[in-house]
Amino acid sequence: MPKSALLLMDVQQNIVGRVSDPELVPRMARAVAAARDAGVPVMHVVVGFRAGHPEINPANRSFGALPPGAFGPGDPGAAIDPAVAPRDGETVVVKKRVSAFAGSDLEMLLRAAGIDHLVLSGISTSGVVLSTVRQAADLDYRLTVLSDACFDPDPETHRFLTERLFPRQADVTTIGDWAKTLG
């Protein structure tokens, strides 16, 4: 039987502050509660850099334009939203690029725990979720994407990815339907 983990990706203050859907984080909190109640590990994936951003090449369009200190030590905007904050014992994975795997120890942690099924949620659908789906599929993980626990600033992009692209490599469902499979 596959062992699952819920990955909650990029739900950090600086990122949540740009989300136009005020119900997103409460929905994500319901997914986290369902996972915890069912004993499914919750892993929090965040973007983070050392002081001075030595990991960022200025040519990188996604991260090269970040202001000094952003997502670095002491940046309050790098904190995980309190509504979904990690509990004691829950893993926080720090990544250096868009995919949850890039520049992180996520794969090592998953393999060590025997996890082979990832349930994905995050901000944004066309960023961390897309990049993680593609890389995780290449790494032979079973995948589920919680469509209503993902957000993209472009609703049409979100729709296309969740309805057309992701189903090629993942099961796509809602938080409510996924939670029913846990009990």
From TrEMBL:
Any GO molecular function: hydrolase activity
Domain of life (superkingdom): Bacteria
Keyword hit for Hydrolase: yes
Domain Isochorismatase-like: 4-175
Keyword Hydrolase: yes
Keywords: Hydrolase
Name of the protein described by the UniProt record: Nicotinamidase-related amidase
Organism: Actinacidiphila rubida
